[in-house]
Give the backbone structure.
Amino acid sequence: MPEFIWNGVGLTTPEAWEPSAIERDGLTFASGDRPVCELKWNRVQGTFSFDKHIKRLTKGNKAAGIMGVSEEETPAAWTAALDVLTESGIRSKSFLWKTGSHRGMGAALHNPGSGLAALVQFFIYSDDDEGRAAAVLHSMRDYYLGQSLPWAMFGLRGRVPSEFVLNTFSFKPGHYRVQYWRPRSGKQSDRAQVGKGPGTHLVFERFAPASVVLKDTALSSWLGHGMEDAPPASMDVVEIDGCARWNGAVKSNLMRTVLRRTVYSQGRVWTTATQNAILSVVAHGTVPAPEPIFNEICESYGLVQE
């Protein structure tokens, strides 16, 4: 089953399910032209009300009849999935909804340890869908409390230090881009805009097919016109065995040094042994990425082997 991990939340899905909508704190899956699962989440502090969380779903679906589910009415597989979540520290409250000829089931979830508050619902078209929904619910994981955060989407997987937060992302045919941000302090304020001010941008990219993108151009020569975050022409780029690397200051003078505004860039770009792709990791900003940490990030990034 494919695994999707996004902004601290992960799950596995049936092969036929594909993400049809991706938000910073939300995923929607479809099978063919039919929606099958919707998952939204955020992080909350203090008390948490399951009833208020479910009411938010009611506001967005006024035509649906939403009701709680007693233990006697809950399918055994669904109960077993909730038990697994409970063991991991996640509390839950299940619900059912009906509108016209359609029905669904879902749960409001809360992890007091990490502050995760989530709402997951599944669209049920046949009795078999209940088992699939329970299996996906069983697989849900909260990764927020780890020292690093994994991510996996559309055949890519990687890992970032936990002080980085998801900033922007784009998944277009032939070009995937996922960008994280770490402020200089290492702590993201609720009031501060992600990606603004002194800090470090961490960018993952995938270009494919590599044979078409590169044609007969050397990888180090392609960087300048092929990548948004390419190193300046004045910076030395070393290419060995299909991997281009650079590391240094791209904007530096006495005033920038005094004000701690020197801009650094460190990158690694390589072609993959399989699946005909180019992968890249670039860290740039006024706070340089320590080389050992940058190397670990690069080693974690790759293609999910089919």
